[in-house]
Amino acid sequence: MTKKERYDFVIRYFQGHMPDAETELVYDNPYQLLVAVILSAQCTDKRVNMTTPFIFEKYPDIPALSKASFDDLFPLIKSISYPNNKTRHLIGMAQKVLTGFNGQIPMTVPELITLPGVGRKTANVITSVIDQQPNMAVDTHVFRVSKRIGLVSRQLTTPLAVEKELIKNIKPELIHKAHHWLILHGRYVCTARAPKCPECGLQQACQYFQNALKKGDLSFS
Question: Which GO terms describe its biological process (predicted)?
Fold first, then answer.
């Protein structure tokens, strides 16, 4: 199977089986999504969704969050990973949005990454989810799944390299959705330690599965 054939197969599969894929983070507006994505680094969406309602109740918008003190905000997110850093990042982010962007969440990657706590991955999430821009956020799931399937070379060692390869081979209008396809597939099927290959619909296109068949290594099943 050529690379183009592999991409075509994978995209057709997800379009048929996961046509409405979207983030599992719960949010109502760009501000809430930005807070949730900052909190989600090295943390599960489930834990973030349990935490954000209390934050949004006390700090419903950028101006409110910009006035938060560390001691007031920290107790609300202490169950999240790296709560000290994330508390500072959230307050700093809100203050920068207020003073540098007139209180409006910017919607370009270069602008977003100037905010505390916002790296390229977070900026790609915000712009692709809110504005459906053709930006591919590469988290651990996307990094792992795209390599296992064979969408990108296993020799690629950085999220940025994987991002560029995926963007080069996926139609721009599908990139924002492909991000969720790969994340959800990695979260529920192509898991890190025990991929659920027997129930996966991508077997025909997946290099990982095909190599296991050739070696007679079906221990994962």
Answer: base-excision repair, AP site formation
190 is in an annotated binding site: yes
Q: Locate the DSSP E strands across 107-159.
A: none
Backbone angles phi, psi at 139, to 5 degrees: -100, -170
CATH architecture assignment, domain 30-131: Orthogonal Bundle (1.10)
Check the annotation: does 43 bind a ligand: no
Task: Consult the annotation and say whether 197 binds a ligand.
Answer: yes
Just give the CATH number of 3-21+136-215.
Answer: 1.10.1670.10
The pLDDT averaged over each successive group of 10 residues in the chain (221 residues) is 95 95 95 97 93 97 97 96 96 97 96 97 96 95 96 94 97 95 96 92 94 71 45
Q: Which of 45, 78, 131, 139 is catalytic?
A: 139
61 is catalytic: no
Asked if residue 78 lies in contact with residue 71, where contact means CB atoms within 8 angstroms, the answer is: no
User: 0.70 exceeded by the pTM?
Assistant: yes
